[in-house]
Amino acid sequence: MDQETRIVLIDDDQDACELLKMQLEDTGRMSVIYSTVSEEAMTIIGRELPDIAILDINMPGIHGVKIGSTLAADAKTSEIPILYLSGMVTPDEAQDIVAGEKKPSLISKGSPMEEIIAAIDTLTAA
Known about the structure:
Elements: E1 5-10, H1 14-25, E2 30-35, H2 41-48, E3 52-56, H3 64-73, E4 82-86, H4 91-98, E5 106-108, H5 113-124
Parallel strand pairs: 1-2, 1-3, 3-4, 4-5
């Protein structure tokens, strides 16, 4: 069996975190730690050094893109792939935004679970 993909999820919506955690862990190959507090993101991600960070874009406190740019600027976390989640774009709009990218970086919260899993797999592929 392949090694479990370790995910840190940062989203201010508790219900969305719990649902996504459950669905990803139900694959049997992913483990998820989440926080609903954006200010905790750097501490958790720096401590856990996950295989991927999933960040909600529009959050109170620190904006998800700011968290991503801070991760990218830190030598300790710069290699961690980031998947941004947004409830403000439809799945089709998210596809249009990342069209042509080799690795997706944005996905709509409304995307089917299969697409979210595929995006995670693509971003974490060695």
